[in-house]
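Structural prep section.
Before we set up the soaks we want a predicted structure of the protein with S-adenosylmethionine in place, mainly to decide which crystallisation condition to try first. Input record follows.
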Amino acid sequence: MSEARRPAEASVDPSATDSRHQSRSGNPVPEPRVASMFDSIAPVYDRMNTIMTAGLDGRWRRAAVRAARVSPGGSALDVACGTGKLTAALGAAVGPTGRVVGVDLSTAMLEEARRAFGELGQVEFVAGNALDLPFEANVFDAATIAFGLRNLASFEDGFREMARVVRPGGRVVCLELTTPRPKIAGRFYSAVFGRMAPSVGRVFGRREAYAYLPHSLDGFPNAEELAETMRQVGLANVTVRRLALGALALHSGEVR
Ligand SMILES: C[S@@+](CC[C@H](N)C(=O)[O-])C[C@H]1O[C@@H](n2cnc3c(N)ncnc32)[C@H](O)[C@@H]1O
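Run finished without errors. Recording the tokens verbatim:
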């Protein structure tokens, strides 16, 4: 398909046409602060995730792996890999003859990733910035980013970098919280991220970092706007799939 398709789910997104809706093009929080917040929550990140998602995050990451369409012997880059769960799931998909690299800004998150998955021969974790990836062009079959995009100073540049390092025909995949949420998912989100995250974060002694999470979604582009950003960087056949009662969006596009 030469021109990107507008998926039906995304085109009915009401805030896409709402003139009051104003989206940010990137995260206003400076990178060093983002990195230090993730450094501070690294030791509790996986436990917090399991609590806040009721253990469903594994299912969502598996959907991201399927969207990346990698096969045994293939390769993938997992951007903003954090503690490496998606990186490892991609590693399982490419198998021992494949190669998967996880890249992240936070050294403490990378340490957790290496501790958990360092034994996997096909998986490697490296320090780097999503907006200036330390890789040549066209080297991976797919690039993924899960719950990382909303932290980047420029969403468009994040997608541009992912598209740059993926070979033509490969996939760029983004799993992220989304707006607006249908009523039920909206209430669930407000309860879990607006109130529960800072409280549970306090229990773990990381209140400030977990208070950042709900705010990182303020003004985040809705699913259709994000799809348009992917098209703008040249990705084709962009699709959007809603998960978790519409609270998450799984975007996928093809490198030309
Ligand atoms: C919410 S965590 C998501 C981690 C993991 N992908 C997951 O699914 O659990 C966001 C991650 O993005 C990383 N990050 C934020 N800004 C980044 C940047 N500019 N470049 C690379 N990583 C970044 C953080 O250090 C953190 O590990």
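Observations: The first strand starts at residue 75 and ends at 79.
Flagged for discussion at group meeting.
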